[in-house]
Amino acid sequence: SPVAYISPSETVLNAKPNPFVAQFSSIGPNSLTPDILKPDITAPGVNILAAWSEAAPLLPRIDSKQTFVPFNLISGTSMACPHVSGVVALLKAAYPDWSPAAIKSAIMTTAFRLDNSKEAMKRSSREIAGPFDYGAGHIDPNMASNPGLVYNASMQDYLSFFCSLGYNSTQIKLLTGNGFSCPNHKEEVYNFNYPSITVSELKGPLFVKRTVTYVSEGPAVFEANVKSPRGVLVAAKPSKLTFSNKGEKRVFYLVMKPQESVGNEYVFGSLTWKNGEQKVTSPTVVKRATPRSPELTKHSHFNHPEYKSF
């Protein structure tokens, strides 16, 4: 008669390739706000061993009996989120004056996108993953503690962002309880000062605005390294940012120019500000709206003063 053997379990260390994006992980694009990349970040969330309340039985039941244990293995967002929350708490303790937006920026712009084989991170299917799978990348707590630059945003910025989404002042006042009013000029959603850069309808040459804040000590110079998405010519203007003191802000534009060959599919690239020691990376995600037509030559950004030098 057949005989089955159950061998003792073993812990396998440094298994390769790791990390990878789980099959059940939520992916982009963002269906509600296409000009904001989602997900933001990736964190450990598969087979996480952690404490478990013995007030809650295991599911499913074993032999129709309730089983209570002090530890359990769980997978999902409910495991990835505590990892990120812990990093947020550590950053807030280290930098009490940082805003939630600054902390989010530090986490996103210092994430990594290579696995432990030094190859591009993959999906569980072993296909190459991208920003719609992992967002800015996999969280790196040590790097997040020293980002150099952050993309900050105030409460006013978020309220103006709601205006850009189409909410009116009356609706926003129901949330805030104060006298906030939407500005006469509603900023484009892609200009919200987010750590990632997404343009879901690129109709012609475009300037995307961002502001970075220097959060390190002493003078520094950051230079831009741009990896253009396929079929889109991208440049940073200016391409060099100089800082003398902590807290200084600098505005730059990411100039995008679609090429004739680009279709109406999402393409991916990145912008990295480097100063030798620190690297601040933002994924860039672009989708062409429609094929070129004569009316696109009237696009307002053709008259932007920086365009002539692009």
TrEMBL record:
Q: Where is the Peptidase S8/S53 domain?
A: 17-117
- What InterPro entries would the database entry show? Peptidase_S8/S53_dom, Peptidase_S8/S53_dom_sf, Peptidase_S8_Ser-AS, SBT, Subtilisin-like_FN3
Q: Which UniProt keywords apply?
A: Hydrolase, Protease, Serine protease, Signal
Query: The Subtilisin-like protease fibronectin type-III domain covers which part of the protein?
Result: 191-286
Report residue spans for region: Disordered: 282-310
What Gene Ontology terms describe what this protein does at the molecular function level? serine-type endopeptidase activity
Enumerate the Gene Ontology biological process terms: proteolysis
Recorded family membership: Belongs to the peptidase S8 family.
> Can you say what this protein is called?
Subtilisin-like protease
